[in-house]
Amino acid sequence: MGRRGRGGFKGKGRKGSEHVSGERQSYKKFEELRRDNDGFRKYYIAQQIVAEDEFPEFMETMRTILPTNFRITGSRQQAMDIREQIMHEFIPFIKETNIDGAEIEPPHPLEWYPNNFGWQFTIPRIALKKSKELSKFHAFLVTETEVGNISRQEAVSMVPPLFLGVQSDHYVLDMCAAPGSKTAQLIEALHAGVAEGQTPSGVVIANDADYKRACMLVHQISRLGSPNIIVTNHSGERFPNIYRPASQGGGNKREVVQFDRILCDVPCSGDGTTRKNVRVWEKWRPDDAHSLNPIQAKILQRAAYLLKTGGRLVYSTCSLNPIENEAVIAHVLDHFEGALRLVDVGDQLPELKRRPGLKTWKVMTRDGSLYESFDAVPPENGGRGRRKYMPKFFPLSKERMDDLHLERCMRIYPHMQNTGGFFVAVLEKVAPIGINEEKKAAAEAESFAAMMDVLRGPRPANVESGRVDADNGCVIPKRNAEDPDSGLVCEDASDAKRVKIGDLDASDNDSGDVDANDDKSNTQFLPDNPREDPALGENPFVFLDAKESELDTILDYYGIRDTISRSGFLSRIEKDDFRTVYYVSDSVRTMMELAKQRLRVVNTGIKVFGRNCVKGAGCAFRLVCEGVPLLLPHLSEKYVLEASFGDLKALLSDINPLFTALSLETQERISAIEPSSSVVMRYDPSKHTDDEEKPYTRLTAMLAIPCWRGHASLSVHMDKNQLCSLIQRVLGRSVNRNTVGGIKMSNNTKSSSETPAAADSSPIAEPS
Is the peptide bond before 685 cis (omega within 30 degrees of 0)? Predict the structure, then answer.
């Protein structure tokens, strides 16, 4: 992670043009930014993350610009079409391209990514402007990215989901999901083994602590068209328990819903991203990781409770710092006393070059001193010098570290395969967790407080009593009686900062003295049953009853068959009305009904119907482009027009063709459909012979294009970017996506003069 707003370098009151010191910095050009940091160099030399003679190459690569990487997304058949287009339409021309006498290296697949769906290229931006073929390739990437057929994603960011092994029946939780590229991989894996037109029995919950980022996540994954996704907004360490009712004969004890697979791509300092985030060099400090380690550990602990026995969990960061990586893994494994274990995945993705995890490391203080153990830190200022560098930053005993097999963690270094830096650990839950968290937390807090009592000597009389949080050593005052939802606070004499995702501060968390006997019940973090976040202030989703709502009229009008579950339709109700109908799988409905109001649901499902604004239309709702692939197998054939290539060409050439521009067979089918209603133009490449005219790019996936049936013409109801993509692939024409929706079609004048075009209304001003 390590992105701004997710626990990186964002501090309270700090602005983009300010240095971490608080001094205002003068603007520098990108090329002028310093790509080095003496503290960074000293710290990682001491950690011995690579051999001494290898370190110069490591540092030199960390200073270079990261190559461009992308991943082909979507359904398998469509992804294969995009891959073939890249390999046969673009690469042959790029290979023959010369810029100022220099050959251009074409894009190439990432050798370790399955099915050649991951790609990398190093073409400089200036070259993209100097070559017609390169410009076309760049335009193709931009369009397909906006459509969702391609995802711009750093190579190492693609790694964690590949080690989860998601199956179609799995319940999957992505605890820190935004911006959503990894979530998209999880959704694709969930659908991979399912036949076209069917829905997996599993579910993916994509959670993020930042509401705005969760909304961005919705946009990212909506393009995949999955009814098996729920987007939620919770702090990762406080993701709520969802309960199943007590089973018959099983007593009154409720069962917590647990997940088969969990991804913890946690907030981090991001010091492995210097190749794309150059500002990391000047902002890096040795204690950036110190304020992050406690929240990272809490997220991982919470994930352990939410994981099924036998389930798999992946923990990852884009940091190289062992305090954020191996320290978190080691102490969490130790905390759970054998219930979790590291999995050896050395035989998976063999082409991916990686190094084993560290078993020893050092902690650097702000003054640059390095220490191998907590006991070695000088007890300055009555023990506060040690309090800042808590025991959980350091390795456990050598014997215990050997038992935990931290060498099974994976470290990915930039110079090994021209990537960013990354850390990945794959864990398995081998037994139910049987520890008493409340007693364990109390014991740890009292032990830490006793140790601090010895170090600091007599307690000053003017220090207010509080409680030590055993997770981070901060003083936790009693809860404010007027604010029972107030969170954990690390209190400093000069500043009080709330520890939360998205606003972690790297400044000192120094504290005063503590009273280990103070009340613990209100503020203790218990990973098995954490304090819940307040409800989300939005209109909740409400499931629609097909027999008692307007939904029955919609389904009847479009002839939606019983082959699709009637229980999956829902909407946000506003003033006893709804404008959009969504559809979710049975597994999502079950999860939402069990959760009731515990889940802060930002979005879920696929839009399938939207209210139109055409008076006198046969149905008040139209088909929405996003939901057409889902509904198509269940839609009445009356509203599905089988298109010849000539029909497809006419539709994409004019966008709003007159009926007379279409084949006689299609015209006859259209005449049987009421004006002012939605139809779907379907083109199946497998049903057309080799001697017929074909699309510009070889297609194997079926195309389903939603249209509006007017009085004299069809109009395409599709997102501009999707339309540009189709035109490129079918007709071989590049279209300016900024003007495609505003083009004056050649038939508009004819429509107004020869037909009652005024009545040829479209239900929306902009395509859905």
Answer: no
Tokens describing residue 458: 């007599």
Nearest 5 degrees, angle CA 526-CA 530-CA 535?
A: 170
Q: Is 692 left (phi over 0), alpha (psi -120 to 50) or beta?
A: beta
Query: Which ranges constitute the DSSP H helices of 524-583?
Result: 551-557
Query: What sign has the CA pseudo-torsion 557, 558, 560, 565?
Result: negative
pLDDT band (50, 70, 90) for residue 232: very high
Tell me which range, 401-405, 505-509, 532-536, 758-762, is most confidently predicted by mean pLDDT: 401-405
Q: What's the rounded mean pLDDT across residues 527-551?
A: 84
Residue 535: CB atoms within 10 Å: 11
- State the pairing for strand pair 422-429/410-412: antiparallel
CA dist., res. 279 & res. 544, Å (int): 50
Catalytic residue among 176, 318, 625, 724: 318
Distance CA 222, CA 629 (A): 13
Catalytic residue list contains 318: yes
Most confident of 314-318, 442-446, 505-509: 314-318
Whole-angstrom distance, CA of residue 249 vs CA of residue 680: 51
User: Kind and range of the H or E element at 263?
Assistant: strand 259-265
Residue ranges of alpha helices (H) inside 336-465 are: 384-387, 398-404, 414-417, 437-456
Query: Using CA atoms, how far apart are residues 30 and 517, in angstroms rounded to an integer?
Result: 54
Quickly list H helices, 357-413. Answer: 384-387, 398-404
